[in-house]
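Researcher: Go.
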Amino acid sequence: MTRLQCRNPFAVSVKLGNDVVHATLGGRGAAAPRKYLGRFAGFAIMSRTSTPPSWCLLLQKVHCPNFIDGDYAKKQGLLSMDLVCESKRAWGFDDSDLVDGIDTESMMEYVKVQARVTDAPNLSFLTMTLGGDEEEKAVFPILHAMDRNLLVFDLTFPDKIDGAYLIYDTIGKTLSMIPALSSLSSPDGMAHTTQVLIARPHAAVDDGSYALALLGKMGVVDKPGDMPVISWPDVIYQWRPSSSISPWKLIKNANLPQQWMADKSAFSADVAFSFEGHAFWVDLMHGILFCTCADLLSDDVKDVGFDSIDLPLDCLKFTPHSWTMAERQAYRTVGCTGNSIKFVSMHFRGCVKRGAPKVTVWRLEVYAKIWVKEHVLNLKTLWTQPAFLAANLPMDMAAMYPVLSMHEEHVICFMLGEYDLSASGVVLPSNVRHFLRVDMLSATLLSSAPIPSAYSYAPVVVPSDLTSYLPPTAAVAFSTVAPTVSPAAIATVVSPPNIPASPASNAFALPDKAPRGVDYSMSQTELPESTSPSESSPAMASTTPAPYVVEDCGPNLQLFSDGTVIRFEDYNILPPPVLPPALSTVQWKDVVYDAGRGLKLRMYAPANHGGEEGKLPVLVYFHGGGFCIASFELPNFHAGALRLAGELPAVVLSADYRLAPEHRLPAAYEDAVAVLSWLRGQAAAAADPWLAASADFERVFVCGDSCGGNIAHHLTVGCGSGDIALDAARLAGCVMLWPYFGGEARMPSEAPPPPPEGDASPSAMGITLFDQMWRLALPAGATRDHPAANPFGPESPPLDGVAFPPVLIVDPELDVLRDRVADYAARLEAMGKRVELVKFEGQGHGFFVLDPMSEASGELVRVVRRFPSKRSRAQPAMASLSDPNAPPPHVVEDCRGALQLLSDGTVVRAAAAPPPFHVRLDINDGRVEWKDAVYDAAHGLGEKLPVVVYFHGGGFCIGSCTWPNFHAGCLRLAAELPAVVLSFDYRLAPEHRLPAAHEDAAAALIWLRDQLLSDPWLADAADARKVFVSGESAGGNFAHHLAVRFGAAGLDPVRVAGYVLLMPAFISERPTPSELAAPATAFLTRDMCDRYCRLALPAGADKDHPLVNPFGPASRSLEAADVGRVLVVAADGDLLRDKNVEYAERMKAMGKDVELVVFAGEEHAFFGVKPMSAATGELVEVIRRFIAGAAASTTNNLNN
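Model: Structure:
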């Protein structure tokens, strides 16, 4: 019995299955201020799940006055009769409750509520009873929050403010109840809850600690005059389990986090959820505040340290400042899905025709605070699909209330409903009518469900499979396992059907000295793949002894005597990786490679790669974990794969496989073969567009760390012996990172460690743990000499005749397996295999996984990069490697750390590639749209605005159109000229020396010529007869060469009306006065110019090469060149000033139409460095006047 004392209480009993919880709830408080509430008559609020971002139950609540006279309520149309109390006896009635003689405080004396929670194991019917004997009322609860084993239901009643929260523990099958914020927080009763958050601290050992944080609005009445004024500040109440007698206790009343951060005073908590031990509070107009759950649970609010993340920039631009919280929640949401946080925005752009907004999904790299745009979908593409038409869905409704799916990372759910338009044209949501589920990757409608019109002002249940949102441990707990301790960290529990589970009461009651059997002797029968946990045998009789631990693999895994396997998959021993901004451009998605077993792999591909010449090698990667634990979804494995894909670069396929002991070897090998079979099909059919665009199937490398390296070995043997066929693909190499091999005979490095002294703990990666993993993974009764573990064991097949591709083996110095790994490499080399062994000093087993962003991990990536980079597409699989005894590469060019060229040809660009300055873009009014395009494909061109083709600077060696400053400058050009701006990337030196970049610039104009009218953006806005070619620094150099090549005529139907050269990169062997006078502290120095020239120019060329010196001894004459109109901009503080001025004057002397503008007090590339500065604003105005004059001249010429 749980009793929570409140003013004017009433009794509540809730029954779930065979469990009943009682509570005393309610409370009216002082009555006088209640008459001023107004109760928001007729205002509908759609409630939905938040922490578990997935639709389960929906409740539409209507806050209206509670009139004692039901007939009066019906006449006024305030509420549906289903929600009106007919009781004539007032509860807590006094004279102050009368308004104009009408009782506004009558409340329902009792109501019996039945609600179905759809498709959940042992969660069939919820029965709630209040008070005495009255008519039953149908009021459904809503699943408001979920985290691991906890479900939090909102039991708010539709005709009163007071309510409750029901907390159900899916493992312990326990119920508890707390009052809603409205019952407790304010003596006036003027409060209500808006969000519920389950907070858990991030700890190496989860002790089950958690709390509910209730976010709400508290009504504060102030009477400055005769008329009271009510304000609604945000408040937080936290509840924490305290005892079995009183499991919930109010521990703290605190203000919201923005009140601890002066610069976030306007913050409003629209969404709250927890993720990886942090609590997140989201303002859907501004951004996110977050703190650790440990801080949140501390009793001293002054110790809480909050941090903030802004919303994506292009989302902030289109945020109507007049949106209410309900409107924000109708079109935006943030939540956790899979192992990431995502933000969804529905953007109407003022158009509601056929309910077709644009839906954009961003993924948050939390530790780098970077939003990565994942999907953009125009929902009007759904309306013509057969599934949409077959469901008879309406064409005239608006899409609203987006929700993320917890486990389906690319699925978005939303509602179709009626809408109204505000005076400003904003779409206002009204009654919902349909529930839709959409796959963002394929832009297809997966399913839909109608919402009965009779429920427009009544609770609504939308069918959903709640089982898919509960971890497997919860599903098993309903029928077999019910731990008495809090197994909050458990992610998987498996009970083999042939071994009955123990009683729930003592399932985890371990004896003080449980046997830790060295020889695993229990039954090894695997759980059949077709058998679900709910099909397990009935529980043992009460006399069955409690199960005990037979293998305890540290903080990773426990195996019990009854066959139960518990994995602790928080992996808090791993420090969270901090991703550098450069990796934000790597795209990834999950695909199923074995539908029968539900096995997936995660595909990574760096952006801006594609085309036949730009295709990348394919690295098939298998994670480590002793064959028993882990997944590609773990943050550290994910971060490592991101780094490999981004820095090699390569297409990385990181695959999961079945784990032991449920699935002993060779199960993992079979799954790995299935991965290669799937890849073989992709190579033959080009089914996946990512692989078709980016993957070079002639360069496939198998790779893995630890047991993943073991898998890579066995795949290589299978391919080399002909047992595995790749057909259209080719295995070009094998990369083994500290491969997990074993043997009964110990190697010197595998000697058991001495017993730890004092309180010291043994190594987490010691030989004892490795032996345990082998006992769990190998077939029953097998030893470490089994061929799976020992490639050279007595039963292992000989490898002499196997055709190995080149093999790279990484062997850390501190790894206990180092001698075995070195022996493996030496034996292969003795057989004539091409093997490269690389030792890493001072590193231990799994260092790349433990800290994928470390300096050592960076060096590892460079080692792997050099290994496949030497395997060109023309080379056979057995191509020779470089001399393994060659000295390590050294730096031959260092451009201020932004770029390094090594002696072996490797180019290392800094992880944080963009310049170290920050842009605050003030163009937030929606004047500019932008998108990325690939310009080696055909698109279209239309009319209206002039077109500015822009090439960024960077000394021909660094930079990208995606850099924030270049992006901001183009946004400003587009908004203030105005114009359609096309900002192009190009190949960079030294990997691609000049004239590669000039060829790409010419290809950009050819692409523009081929556009015509196929691209809707250009068709609506661009004038093909008024094209202007521009660029800064190196980009200005391109503009000159394009002017010489294409001239004023351009490429029909494209007509180039002018060229804009911003501080163009011209130089010569003879230094100018401005070069000699340039200080060493300048943004661009002579030394940097010389370095970039050495890296970019053709090998052996000097600075008089025609590509950088238009008037050099070998340069062609420009006398006859019809370059059209040219604007040259120079900066007074630029060392290239004299060259820029000389260029303009010599072109003028030849009779060219050239305008020169020199900016005083500015340095080189000030447009790219300071795109929002006053000087840049003046520059944009200069360009605007130039374009206007040139465009007018072009129009006159065309008319004549």
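Model: Residues 641 and 1034 are 33 Å apart (CA to CA).
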